[in-house]
Amino acid sequence: MAARPYRFLRRTLAVGCLLAAAALPAARPATPSATPPTTPTNVIPEPTVLRMLQMNLCNSGLAGCYTGHAMARAAEVITAEAPDLVTLNEICAGDLSTLRGVFQTVHAGQTIVAAFQAAGDRPSGDDTRCRNGQRFGIGLLAHVRTPAAPSNVYAGTHPTQDLADPEERAWLCVDVDGALLACTTHLSATGYRVALTQCDHLLDTILPTIARDAGYEPTVLGGDLNLRAGHDPDVRSCTPRGHQRVDDGRLQHITATTDITLCCRALVPMRGATDHPGLLATLTIGPSRRPA
Fold this sequence. Notes:
Blueprint: E1 7-13, E2 48-56, H1 70-81, E3 85-92, H2 93-106, E4 111-118, E5 120-121, E6 126-127, E7 136-144, E8 151-157, E9 167-168, E10 170-176, E11 180-186, H3 192-214, E12 219-224, E13 244-247, E14 252-256, E15 260-268, E16 278-285
Parallel strand pairs: 2-3, 11-12
Antiparallel strand pairs: 1-8, 2-16, 3-7, 4-7, 5-6, 5-9, 8-10, 10-11, 12-14, 13-14, 15-16
Keywords: Signal
InterPro entries: Endo/exonu/phosph_ase_sf, Endo/exonuclease/phosphatase
Domain Endonuclease/exonuclease/phosphatase: 68-276
C-alpha cells in the first residue's frame, strides 16, 4: 500500500501569563556565609496519581453512531468523574472548546491545556469536516501545575492509511508539566491490518522519536485503536514489551510505559449517546529514584 508522506508537527501552547521582568523585585546578593540547601539523593519523591478518561463521542454528525446526545453525556461524565486527563476521539473542533469549559469548572482555579488535531481528507487535501463544517478529529484535555511554562504539542497523520477510506487518521501528544507525555489517536476502522501498522509505527517510531528529540517522559496513550486483544490482528502485538494496557473489552485502550502503573479500570456507561463506553483508569507515575 502506498504510504502518504509522513507529517509530524510540533507546536507550543502558551499557558498562563507572562510577568514583565521589571515588575519583579530585585534579587538580593548572596551572603558569603550562606550555605545552600542540600537535597538527599536517596529521597523517594511522592508518586503522581492521575485519573484518565478515554471517550469516543462519534460526534461528526455523519456516522451511523451519531445520536446528537454525546456532548451532553460527555459533560455529565467529566463532571461526575473529575478526571485529570481526558482523551477524545471523533469530535468536532468546537466540541473540544465546549468540554474544556466543563473541565475548567471541574478543576476551578487550575490552568487547562486543550489540544486538537484534525484528521486529513484525502480527496480535498484539506481536513476532514463534521456535518456542521467544523474540523473533525481528536482532542486532549489536561490541567497543569506550572501555568507559566508552555506546553509542547506534537501531532500529525499516520504515514500509512487505508486508501479505501478518505479519512486520514491522526495522532496527538501533549507534554503535561514536563512530567508526562499524554497521547491519543484514532486508528483505521476500515482496514484492521492498517490499524495494526499505524499502532506499530506510533508506539515503535513516533513516540521514541519524541523522547529522543525532546527528552524522555513517562508516556500514556488513550484511544480507539480499532484493535482487540485475543483477535487477529491482536492489539497486544503492537504494545511494546513491558508496557501496561487496559481496555474496554473491545476497541478502546489505554497503554503506558513501564514507569507508569495502570490500575482501577472502570467502564462508564454512555447511555446510548455513542457506541463506545467511557474508559477510566488511574495512572501512578513514579517514584523514579530508588534508595541508595
